[in-house]
Amino acid sequence: MIQHKNIDDLSERSIITNDKNQSQRKYSFTQLSIVREEDNNQTMINQQYENDKQSDISDFDIIEFNHNDIKEINKEHVCQETSLSVLSTADLLRERLAFITGGTCNKSPILTFPDNPQIELTQDKYKKLVSYLTQVPSENERQLGFVIIIDRRSDRWMAVKSIMAYIEDYFPYSIQCIYLLRPNSWMQRALSRITILNEITCSHRLIVCRTLAELHEYLDASQLSKDLGGLIDFRLFEWIERRAAIEKLTQSIHELSEMLLVFIKQCDEIEFPNAVESTQQLLIQHSTQKNELEQELRRIKT
């Protein structure tokens, strides 16, 4: 938490800052006018007047920081340079090969591979989509594992075999269950009765559903998108725009927290001199940095 305290003058004022061990250091300013004992009262008044003309120290702020608050902000909004962003995957997302709506099953996020036989889901596309989409839920949700829905009602069993092989080869988190809406054409139903189902390798719990009604026996319709007979009105292009805004804000907060940590370190390491001019320069520098941080915060808010 950041607190501001105005300084009315520098005469015997105390400034308290928190260091990284939460211990406190106390600094004292000596009087603005250092006067020899033999100087008379008029000399003191004149010198004080000249100092006041140069700078009004009461215009500056001293800021106290809580290191733990800033570190928590930095931890919460950390952005790894190697991670994917919605902009880097936007073209793939627009192909509607996979999406995540926010629906859950027993608090585990649901990842959907919709029925889209017109566009081939290659292994490279799969890896890039899964790498990004599994970053969207919170860390706690990710650790619970994912529920995967594979809708291939209009597709072929070969497409089912391909995506199951992709999942076996790569999925960055645990999987609670895979729900498969099987191909429904007459030919594909005939193939499934012969050999196809026996040829699919899956080390995860797999439930094969013939219809949406069967799927709804396992998953609440309120947690499913409309193309799966659910209630979630998922609009992909709007979702991409909102994700881009969220990621931009997250990056800005991360950069601001880094600036604050640097500023705090400088404040902790500062040594206040007894000389008036040097002290004034430090306060001017402190005020300038504070204003820059406030401007950055206002920019983020807008």
Structural overview:
- The chain is of the alpha/beta class and 302 residues long.
- The chain has two domains: 3-76 and 251-301, no CATH class; 100-233, 3-Layer(aba) Sandwich (Phosphatidylinositol Transfer Protein Sec14p).
- It contains ten helices and nine strands.
- The protein has helices at 41-54, 67-76, 86-94, 123-133, 139-144, 157-169, 186-199, 212-216, 236-269, 276-301, and strands at residues 3-6, 14-18, 24-28, 61-64, 104-105, 108-113, 146-151, 175-181, 206-209.
- The strands form three sheets. The protein has a five-stranded mixed beta sheet. Strands 1-4 form a two-stranded antiparallel ribbon. Strands 2-3 form a two-stranded antiparallel sheet.
- Helix 3 crosses helix 4.
- It is elongated and about 90 Å long.
- The model is unreliable at 1-46, 48-67 and 69-82 (pLDDT under 50).
Q: Secondary-structure blueprint of this entry?
A:
Blueprint: E1 3-6, E2 14-18, E3 24-28, H1 41-54, E4 61-64, H2 67-76, H3 86-94, E5 104-105, E6 108-113, H4 123-133, H5 139-144, E7 146-151, H6 157-169, E8 175-181, H7 186-199, E9 206-209, H8 212-216, H9 236-269, H10 276-301
Parallel strand pairs: 6-7, 7-8, 8-9
Antiparallel strand pairs: 1-4, 2-3, 5-6
Helix pairs in contact: 2-9, 3-4, 3-9, 9-10
Keywords:
Phosphatidylinositol Transfer Protein Sec14p, 5-stranded mixed sheet, two-stranded antiparallel ribbon, 9 strands, 47% helix, disordered N terminus
Order of helices and strands: EEEHEHHEEHHEHEHEHHH
Please identify the structural class as seen in this structure. alpha/beta
CATH architecture group name of the largest domain:
3-Layer(aba) Sandwich
Low-pLDDT ranges: 1-46, 48-67, 69-82
Q: Give the distance, in angstroms, between the N- and C-terminal Cα atoms.
A: 21 Å
Number of strands: 9
